[in-house]
Amino acid sequence: MKSDLPERTFKFAEQIVKLCRALEKTPGASRTLATQLLRSGTSVGANVEEAQASQSDADFIHKYSIACKEARETHYWLRLIASNGLVKQEDTNTILSECNELIAILTSIIKKMRARQK
Q: Could you tell me the pTM of the whole model?
């Protein structure tokens, strides 16, 4: 599971970028939310990728914990964007679902690694 997670989070970041491009076409709040979403949504994969070269289990857990926090923040921005009708609901359903799955996967990996340390 860990070996394909970097690729999965990369594809997630690609979806985030596409959604942000659509949001940036509209002035005002949409652009501000797009910036927030872009930062958190692309950070998930960046931290997972960085964890692949971690120097210790503690470093690995730390990077995955950051990735999980960023995924949770991304989930928040996606919900806010969807609830305000800034994009069509169907445009956010798939990416919200993937975000939920990534949170669950990251949480599970972190818990297993912490248990292994004890």
A: 0.93
